Amino acid sequence: MGILDFFDLKPLGAILGDLETPVPVIDVDIVDANLKRWQARSDALGLANRPNAKTHKLAEVAKYQLALGASGISVQKLGEAEVVADARISDILVTFNIVGELKLVRLAALARRTAISVVADSAEVARGIGGAGLVAGCDIAVLVECDTGAGRNGLQSADAAVALAKFVDATPGVTYGGLMTYSAAGGRVKADAFLAGARDLAAAAGLQTATVGIGGSPDMWKDEGLSSATEYRAGTYVHFDRSLIALGACSYADCVLSLLAAMVSRPAPERAIIDAGSKALTSGPLGLEGYRVVHSLGDAQVYNVNEEHGYLDLSRVDVRPSIGDLVAITPNHACPVSNLFDQVILVRGSEVLGRVGVDALGLVQ
Amino acid sequence: MGILDFFDLKPLGAILGDLETPVPVIDVDIVDANLKRWQARSDALGLANRPNAKTHKLAEVAKYQLALGASGISVQKLGEAEVVADARISDILVTFNIVGELKLVRLAALARRTAISVVADSAEVARGIGGAGLVAGCDIAVLVECDTGAGRNGLQSADAAVALAKFVDATPGVTYGGLMTYSAAGGRVKADAFLAGARDLAAAAGLQTATVGIGGSPDMWKDEGLSSATEYRAGTYVHFDRSLIALGACSYADCVLSLLAAMVSRPAPERAIIDAGSKALTSGPLGLEGYRVVHSLGDAQVYNVNEEHGYLDLSRVDVRPSIGDLVAITPNHACPVSNLFDQVILVRGSEVLGRVGVDALGLVQ
User: Are B85 and B359 in contact (CB under 8 A)?
Assistant: First the structure.
């Protein structure tokens, strides 16, 4: 079984150099290797693997992740959940507080047709989800989100987490599904202690914690800090990127997604302009210097972006490229890049396999 | 005449607080004022006004700009040109080098149905456009792009610009349409001198420079450096944003576009999490501190973004918001924000007028 079994590809009859740019390109053999390696590790650790589809935004890849052994899918918003549910994937966790009447109506509709669970970090959010469960006619499982050091969403103490678990348990339309966190890079030991403490406190209060979920690609290969977890959520590992190279989670060889761009101007000897700017590469540096161009140009960096222009520094490049040449760029952060395109090109090395539409494009809500 | 004459709006029957978030909101009265003020100034200066549609990505707004007196429209890529041409707008300048066979085929198709002109800064690019003109059966006007200090695309000297103008003049399928530049903020006097010199050199070589085009919202209200220009391209001025406040081109009162987001978590007294992260606000700081929340929360800043999470600092906010409350954020740079959404909401103050689809969404090429 391989990822190509999940796509209905039409041959493009193109080579890489023929493709219209800018366009994201995904190497299927590296996707295969990344997904299988992580599933094997999850199996070895006895952890349920619940990958986050926010990175690839492709229902086909989500189905492949499940076929390889994932226990379910996680997503970051309802729009992604709806795309995944449309593909008949039935075990979906939305790792974002669902707030507002229109969103709760959509959640109720999803609960009627799929086994959807959600997170909450306050009574207000849990009460709203309970209302959606009552409308749907079925209880929605709620995981209590804990802030174990990332400084984002979540309860600040085990006591507060268990208080919310009790509230959920007593609220019509929802059931207490367990605990979850997104741990900051390097913060998993602390997260583990927080979650274990909350789980034990909940047990003492008579509440069974079915799931203890932890997430994040940065620490995915580390062994420590997994004593309490029953489930792991990783997203970016399907593609990897420069930010995860910097954090030691992968190498360039593991990076799946590259952005193919064309050289459109050579205004000065050491400067080239490519047709990929912030509307293709995003503008976020993530604390990294430049964007690395991996193929064909050694260490050349994209040192600036405007909306449609990328500025490429050729000062350390031996063979200077010509107008029309294509370059493949490894993004700093893959997830917001695939978010910008309505298609991706599947390749195997330099062979073009076909084009895939991105179902979740523009689903900002 | 007002902008609402150009939209076929269906009433939403909603108030601002009912809208599903995140969603961009545009105040039509401020759009009206911004567009009319700039058109009046262009008229007073005797400058052709050629606004760039990349900012709003709405054919209806482009039509309104023309109705107010704009001489034509400029765009940053072929996908935008096609959307504008579909709306029967016939005078379109693409201010980006068109490179590659597939793009040149699209350019030829556009040339058959509209008066399209393009830029070039090399013989290679001009030759490709000439081929498209021959395929289309009509000459395509080429403006020679000059790098007058921005360090992006363009010829580096007046001599080089005139050499390319001569090449264009001698190339089948294209005509020499003039000179253009994007001048860096504060760089217009230098740009003007460059362009005047190139124009005079071209004249000495027997070439008439029909258009001298200059662009950029940052310097749009400055009087100096306009001696040679016949045409001005501004894009962001329709919306304005924090980056243009910082450059002195506008005030908060002129900013049209705000991103409406919901408070989804209050994990700590001084921290709120909103449902607008880098996939809604973009990640680019543009050298500005945070993102300013203009309505309802004084000086509260979005101090960090993940893909779906925005981190709001409430330490200096007197009245602390509750979960479910909406906040309106003025983006640092408006253009990449409207690029992320398939819809915008038109409002007048706090009155919701209707919803508009964004035709150019996902047209990355």
Answer: no
Q: Which of A152, A268, A336 sits opposite B278 (nearest CB)?
A: A336
DSSP code of A345?
A: E
Are residues A18 and B97, on separate chains, in Cβ contact within 8 Å?
no
- Give the C-alpha separation, B181 to A195, whole Å: 58
Residues A352, A337: Cα–Cα separation, whole Å: 20
Chain B residues in contact with A18 (beta carbon < 8 A) = 101-102
pTM (predicted TM-score): 0.93
As a whole number of angstroms, the distance between CA B302 and CA B112 comes to 47
All residues of chain A having their beta carbon less than 8 Å from the beta carbon of residue B101 are 18
Contact B99/A264, CB-based, under 8 Å?
yes
DSSP state letters, A178-200: EEE--PPTT-HHHHHHHHHHHHH
SS (H, E, C) A112-143: HHCEEEEEECCHHHHHHHHHHHHHHCCCEEEE
| Interface confidence (ipTM) of the complex | 0.90
CA distance A1 to chain B (A): 32
Rg (CA), chain B: 22
3-class secondary structure per residue, chain B? CCHHHHCCCCCCCCCHHHCCCCEEEEEHHHHHHHHHHHHHHHHHHCCEECCECCCCCCHHHHHHHHHCCCCCEEECCHHHHHHHHHCCCCEEEECCCCCCHHHHHHHHHHHHHCEEEEEECCHHHHHHHHHHHHHHCCCEEEEEEECCCCCCCCECCHHHHHHHHHHHHHCCCEEEEEEECCCCCCCHHHHHHHHHHHHHHHHHCCCCCCEEEEECCCCCCCCCCCCCCCEEECCHHHCCCHHHHHCCCCCHHHCCEEEEEEEEEEEECCEEEECCCHHHHCCCCCCCCCEEECCCCCCCEEEEECCCCEEEECCCCCCCCCCCCEEEECCCCHHHHHCCCCEEEEEECCEEEEEEECCCCCCCC
Compute CA distances B135 → A103, A277, B48, B166, whole Å. Answer: 51, 29, 30, 22
What is the rounded CA–CA span in Å between residue A90 and residue B264?
25
A308, B21: Cβ pair inside 8 Å?
no
**pLDDT (tens digit, 0 to 9) for every residue of chain A, 365 residues total?**
899 999 988 888 888 888 999 999 999 999 999 999 999 999 999 999 999 999 999 999 999 999 999 999 999 999 999 999 999 999 999 999 999 999 999 999 999 999 999 999 999 999 999 999 999 999 999 999 999 999 999 999 999 999 999 999 999 999 999 999 999 889 999 999 999 999 999 999 999 999 999 999 999 999 999 999 999 999 999 999 988 998 999 998 999 999 999 999 999 999 999 999 888 888 765 456 665 665 567 768 888 888 899 999 898 888 888 999 998 888 888 888 888 888 899 999 889 999 998 875 555 67
Amino acid identity of residue B272, one-letter, is A
Contact B342 A364 (CB under 8 A): yes
SS3 A358: coil
